[in-house]
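[09:14] KT: can someone run the structure on this one? pasting the chain below
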Amino acid sequence: MQQTFPGLLMAHAGQRPDAPAMREKAFGIWQTLSWSKLAEMVTDIAGAMHEAGLQRGDHMVVIGSNRPRLYATMLAAQSLGAIPVPLYQDAASAECVFPINNADIKFAVVEDQEQVDKLLDVREQCPQIARIIYDEPRGLRKYDEACLTAMDDFLVQGKAFTQKNPQFVAGEIAKCQPSDVAAMFFTSGTTGNPKGVVHTHNSLLDRASVGARFDKLTPADEVLAYLPPAWIGQNIFSYAQWLAVGYVVNCPESAATVTIDLKEVGPTYYFAPPRVFEGLLTSVMIRMEDAGAIKRKMFHHFMDLAKRVGPAKMDGKALGFLDSLHYALGDLMVYGPLRNNLGMSRVRVAYTAGEAIGPDLFSFYRSIGVNLKQLYGSTETAVFVCLQPDHQAKADTVGVPCEGVEIKLSESGEILVRSPGLLREYYKNPTATAEVLTADGWYHTSDAGFLDADGHLKIIDRVKDVGRIKGGRFDGAMFAPKYVENKLKFFSFVKEAVAFGDQRDRVCVMVNIDFDAVGNWAERQNLPYAGYTDLSQKAAVYDMIKACVEKVNADLSRDEMLAGSQISRFLILHKELDPDDGELTRTNKVRRGFIADKYSVLVDGLYADKTEQFIETQVKFEDGRTGSVSATLQLRDAQIFEPVKQAA
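[09:31] RB: done, structure tokens below
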């Protein structure tokens, strides 16, 4: 069978028709969909799509959470040679306009009323949309737009078509070639309009298969699909690798039930960006602070042990008899229950990617027995460029180049990649394509890094973000903002951080507190507050964040390359950074340049040594309304430490 997505689906359906392919939780009960039932659903949807006019080479938008019928829709489109284009379900309607028009979308499949409303809202700007299929009918009963069709009705139409033409879809699947375009993913658009990244069946499935072989994945593995399908990371793990391997994909009931569903499923293969691991750790720390004194003391005792010997144990190194015994006791009393509480008791392999993870956060999970590893890749490389082998997971690297990948460094230190998983092009953007792809097949990653003595790749930061301190105490020192931000974000009280310092005489940082963690702390301190803005500007909160900043500075002072990146001044923002306000991408990456412009008065205040600064900021609410938040922010100094010279 040809290595195409629908070809693999039909192979699984033929070889093990009754094996579970997907599970979906509905009304608290897990519903199982077998490979044969999935293939039947895909065939019916493909038949209806053909009748509706979807043709080979057409693009089709898919907007929604991870749902079996949306996955089936993507497979149905690929069966006809059409190209699914997943978009972020939490994007505002205006953010959908450019991708829809850029990809000439006429056909859309969406999850529910919210997504239908978005597309109806932009019809004047996207008049070519002729058909919208919706999966969840709740709230849509009285909509009478001619372009709308319920998925239930669509399936009935498709079944009637396939009964009359039983071999039609199979014939279309046979026409699909591995070199055909399989999907298009739009980038975050941190510097302008998003770009459509064009991938073939071969580029996606080659990388998916390489990753599966690397970690010895089997059909017995289970994953939880809870991240946006529009993010290629989720798409690779719960779509490409799912079809390449044939394991079970579990779809949670809703975003609100993910942590519960995670415990119920007990995935063996887990993937999450650092923000999710940070959130899980924060929730644990909050609960521990509310525990009794004896439990807290026991927890901290065994966590100190885990920090000392856990990573070595996970790396397969021998421990002394007493340490082994002590750790086994800790596993019984603390680590095992903790893994179970996190939903990771069955995890065999866990990956984090999307952005750098703080070394302390990374070590925490490995220390309690979770085989957390890092990988390196991007939308343009079909994710898998570097992977960390078991027992070789370093906190400060992203692994070794995986099968089929070549890496070299440019004179500026930029990482260049050549791989079978590279994008074909940026859709309708030959200029941008030429900027990142060389004639001999090398892709410019825009990341700065180097290969260490063991062949592991170490990422410093984005090439454009790595800067130098100019003037002052650390004149000429390297400044790596993301590295500084990630060290701050290890603290459960810090949700986000934005560092500035390139071509300036010192480093200054804006901090977002974690409202849940700091709110819980404030309640235990009997510190009253009226909301996020009020809590963020409490003197006691500033003292707590200052202590976190100075711990980071003490750590940086011991790093010969980055001692100059110590934080001189900081402030706590009066609002949370939000994708709807343009401050984060839809994958929650900081848009540092946008933030610098939007909050220029705060940046100027930090560098002018002001002690306070008034600011008023416009915000967008979930229902589309706008408002403003204002506050007088404190601007604080932090202690800088003398660099510690390493022994020769």
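[09:33] KT: thanks! Residues 293-314 form the longest helix (22 residues).
[09:34] RB: yep, looked fine to me
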